[in-house]
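User: Here's a chain of 109 residues. Predict its fold as tokens.
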Amino acid sequence: MQPRMVMDENKLTVYLTGEIDHHNARSIREAIDCSIQSNKPSLLRLDFSGVTFMDSSGIGLVMGRYRMMSLYGGRVRVVELPESLERIMKLSGLGALNIIGSEVHEYAE
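Assistant: Prediction complete.
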């Protein structure tokens, strides 16, 4: 299923749903990349509240968007993670990038 995307000022929020696995990650990546390229947001918010399953393709999805946003001078925030997915992301090393969790630090430098 294609993610719902909302552009608000200079923030692109992507609402992910269902399963993120090798079968559908490519189309999700392409949709997000197209929106990033056309809108050039300063912040990409990846909302995982509707995700029911994720394999390593989900980690790749986040890492690739992190790299892309860095090229544009933007930032990524991964929000609304179910506890099990947050644990997977932190174990994968994404926690070290300081992009997971609360948006309190969203605009901190």
